[in-house]
Design goal:
The chain is built from three helices and ten strands, in the order βββββββαβββαα. With 194 residues, the chain is α+β, with helices and mostly antiparallel strands. Strand 2 and strand 3 (41-48) form a beta hairpin. Helix 2 crosses helix 3. It is globular, with a radius of gyration of 19 Å.
Length: 194
């Protein structure tokens, strides 16, 4: 697999301007970039995002802890996994994942495994998503964390991992981080790497 890897690079940024920035976690900017060894410049929008964690929590009965949550941009109620923003400076993504699992679905895990780190859409956003597998689950109080906005309306439920995989493959469940986590889990398990 020599050479089969993403490589960091950066084209020259001639100009950059904020299109939108406020106290929320994301910002939108426009960059004017120049191709290497070429006079042509290109205008590119960049959605700045602090990154996120996603947790595939599987219990001893091979059921996945899922959420059904309204997503305005997607125009519907989506089946998702517990997840959250990397919005605390310097916090390790694994620590964020454990906190989000507790806050969103009142679970803790004894066994954690990093599955993948992915760019959900490298052409438009700086976001990196860190996907984790959590097993050895037990109840954990969410403490003083309060579910707000769309989170206040989300529904928690359990789905057998094989049924969730089939729903992904059938195109019935399409939320990107869930799809990536379920497919990674299946691939690693079939290869004996879990």
């Amino acid at each position: 697999m020599v050479g089969l890897a993403d490589e960091p690079s950066r084209w020259l940024v001639r100009e950059s301007r904020d299109i939108h920035r406020d106290s929320w976690v994301v910002g939108l900017r426009e960059d004017v970039v120049q191709r290497p060894d070429h006079p042509e410049t290109l205008h590119r929008l960049v959605l700045e995002h602090p990154g996120a964690v996603v947790v595939l929590a599987i219990d001893s009965d091979r059921r996945v802890c899922c959420l059904r949550q309204y997503r305005h941009a997607g125009g519907g109620d989506f089946i998702e996994l517990p997840a959250g923003l990397l919005d605390m400076d310097g916090e390790d993504p694994a620590v964020t994942a454990a906190r989000e699992l507790r806050e969103e679905v009142e679970l803790q895990a004894e066994d954690w495994r990093h599955l993948l780190t992915i760019y959900p859409s490298a052409g438009i956003t700086t976001e990196l998503q860190h996907l984790y597998l959590a097993r050895g689950l037990s109840h954990a109080d969410r403490g003083d964390f309060e579910l707000r906005g769309e989170e206040a309306e989300m529904e928690k439920f359990w789905a057998p991992v094989d049924e969730l995989l089939e729903a992904v493959l059938a195109g019935q469940v399409r939320e990107g981080p869930l799809v990536a986590a379920v497919l990674a889990f299946d691939a690693l398990e079939r290869r004996g790497r879990l």
